[in-house]
Every structure is written in structure tokens, then in C-alpha cells.
Design brief:
three-stranded antiparallel β-sheet, globular, six-stranded antiparallel β-sheet, Jelly Rolls, 147 residues
Length: 147
């Protein structure tokens, strides 16, 4: 997992051929003005889901095999839970059509707000949308990059 300020995004272009595509899109578009739903950037290779929700004290721990996630909070703030996949147990088997499996395990938390992006690789189990001291409204873009 990688956590950094969006102003440092260029440092990560070398990690995947499509990271520059994602960060250029973020830089050149006002995500807050886009409607929620799925948005294609480069077909099934690079796309994002824009979501709005209320944070909760507990969510499902998840991991992916086919896509890398780059998660960017557009408005609001939340905690993101994370742990290495090796520290988890599968509770719901991998669903290939949705590229997700659900897990159980303890997580560390990091605050995610408008200036932060988080990159989750397949070995990074994550628990998004956790509330901090109380539930908050969040708008977030979840970019999917084909491995």
C-alpha cells in the first residue's frame, strides 16, 4: 500500500504504465462536479467508480486480484483500514466477475481526506469508508487499474 499527498503523484508514475493516466485525469478534471457511477478512462484497463456514502464504524475487509485501486477522497474524510493479505482469513471466496474477496483480520487505520491518495495492490487488504469520531458524508473516486 502507498499513501501520499496528491501533490507528490508524479513520483509514482514509474510503478505502472497507467498511473500517469489516472493522476493526469485527477489533475485535469474536477471530480466533485462529476456524477456518481462508473466512468471509463481507458476501457476496462482504467476506469473509476465515483461514490457518495456515509462512513460507518465497521465495513467489510476486501482485496482484489485483477485490479490495483487508487482511492481519492473528493470531499469529506474517513479512515481506511489496511493490512497485508497474509494477515487475513477469507470469509467470502474470490468473485472473479466482481474482482473482490472478503476477509477477516485486524487492520491499522489511516486518515484519508481531500489531499491524500491511497494505492492498494492485490496483497493489500483494505477496509474503506470507516468513520472517525462520528459518521461523515464522503464522496470518493476509486480508480481501477488492470494489472
Amino acid at each position: 500500500m502507498i499513501v501520499d499527498n496528491i501533490k507528490n503523484a508524479e513520483k509514482y508514475y514509474c510503478l505502472h504504465k497507467d498511473f500517469k493516466t489516472v493522476f493526469d485525469f485527477i489533475k485535469n478534471n474536477d471530480l466533485d462536479k462529476l456524477e456518481c457511477g462508473k466512468h471509463q478512462i481507458k476501457g476496462d484497463e482504467v476506469f473509476f467508480n465515483l461514490q457518495e456514502y456515509e462512513t460507518k464504524p465497521l465495513q467489510k475487509l476486501e482485496a482484489h486480484k485483477k485490479y490495483i485501486d487508487i482511492q481519492v477522497v473528493v470531499s469529506g474524510e474517513e479512515y481506511m483500514g489496511y493490512t497485508n493479505l497474509d494477515n487475513t482469513k477469507i470469509t467470502e471466496e474470490y468473485a472473479k466477475d466482481k474482482d473482490v474477496m472478503f476477509l477477516s483480520g485486524s487492520v491499522d487505520k489511516i486518515k484519508a481526506d481531500k489531499n491524500v491518495f491511497l494505492i492498494f495492490y492485490p496483497q493489500d487488504a483494505h477496509m474503506p469508508a470507516l468513520c472517525m469520531d462520528y459518521s461523515r458524508h464522503v464522496k470518493k473516486a476509486i480508480f481501477k487499474i488492470l494489472i
